Amino acid sequence: MKAAARLQLIKDEWEESSLAEKDDALVYNRKLWTVLVTSATSDSSQLPQAIKNNMASLAVFIFKQTFDVIATENPEKLNSIISINRSIAEGLRAEPEE
């Protein structure tokens, strides 16, 4: 949620934000996704292979979208990253079904 909040702030204040502030938020998100996908897809992960594959695909999308934000200077491209981050965070917070 912290990464999503930082990206939302950058998106909302795109014109007022410095390049360093934008880069800090995007780097933080990339680091988060690197840790998340590395953990989820590792050999020691007990996740089903289909979920590992989905996490890897999501990470590739996040990294590509992040590059596109930087390359095009288009803050609207942050919407999908923010949405995915929030969805993943909500899923991780959810109580397991019994």
* Model regions low in confidence, pLDDT < 50 over at least 5 residues: none
DSSP summary: helix tally: 4
* Integer average pLDDT: 92
Query: What is the count of distinct domains?
Result: 1
> How much of the polypeptide forms β-strand, as a percent range?
under 5%
**How many extended strands?**
0
Largest sheet: none
- Helix and strand element order: HHHH
CA-based shape = elongated
- Measured between the Cα atoms of the first and last residue, the distance is 25 Å
Spatial extent as radius of gyration: 14 Å
What does this structure look like?
The chain has helices at residues 2-12, 19-41, 49-72, 78-93. The protein is mostly helical and 98 residues long. The chain has one domain (2-93). Helix 1 runs antiparallel to helix 2, helix 1 runs antiparallel to helix 4 and helix 3 runs antiparallel to helix 4 (78-93).
In short:
This protein is mostly helical.
Question: Which short descriptors sum up this protein?
Answer:
98 residues; mainly alpha; 4 helices
Task: Note the topology.
Layout: H1 2-12, H2 19-41, H3 49-72, H4 78-93
Helix pairs in contact: 1-2, 1-4, 2-3, 3-4
